[in-house]
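Support request from a user on the community tier.

User writes: "When I paste my structure tokens into the form, the page sometimes reloads and wipes my input. The last time it worked, I copied everything first. Here is what I submitted, just in case something in the input itself triggers the reload:"
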């Protein structure tokens, strides 16, 4: 998930991209008597799925408060016919991050491209888990291959 240097291939930093390495346990160990996900009852699985869906809907409707941006910015849900996909170069800088906030609040899909020479990731980190936001670390001077 780390971006490479501008002279090499750039990678998109987005929470939906999963790595092939096993997930860290963060020091939390599962007790042997705790039910595993495969042996949970159907009601427990349904409750876990409902919590997951509710969490995803919440993430899709607002930003996450951070130390740099402590207030929550709510987003509008636009129909596909009105939602635009917008690329902001320098989107982690002062002006770009405010433009990102405005466009995300209006409900558009935003791709921020920045090399972080003067911009800061902290300016846009409150959008990192939003499904309509993508962050690309890349220098626009170098060519980029995109899908």
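"...and here is what came back when it finally went through:"
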């Amino acid at each position: 998930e780390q971006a490479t240097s501008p002279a090499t291939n750039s990678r998109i930093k987005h929470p939906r991209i999963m790595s092939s390495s096993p997930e860290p346990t963060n020091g939390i160990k599962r007790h042997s008597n705790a039910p595993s996900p495969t042996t949970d009852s159907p009601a427990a699985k349904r409750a876990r799925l409902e919590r997951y869906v509710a969490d995803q809907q919440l993430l899709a409707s607002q930003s996450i408060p951070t130390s740099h941006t402590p207030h929550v910015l709510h987003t509008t849900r636009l129909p596909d016919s009105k939602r635009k996909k917008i690329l902001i170069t320098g989107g982690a800088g002062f002006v770009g991050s405010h433009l990102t906030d405005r466009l995300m609040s209006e409900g558009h899909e935003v791709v921020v491209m920045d090399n972080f020479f003067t911009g800061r990731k902290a300016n846009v980190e409150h959008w990192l888990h939003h499904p309509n936001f993508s962050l690309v670390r890349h220098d626009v001077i170098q060519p980029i291959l995109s899908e």
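Agent notes: The reload is a front-end session timeout and is unrelated to the input. Confidence is low (pLDDT under 50) at residues 1-32. Strands lie at 12-13, 85-89, 109-114, 133-137. Escalated to web team.
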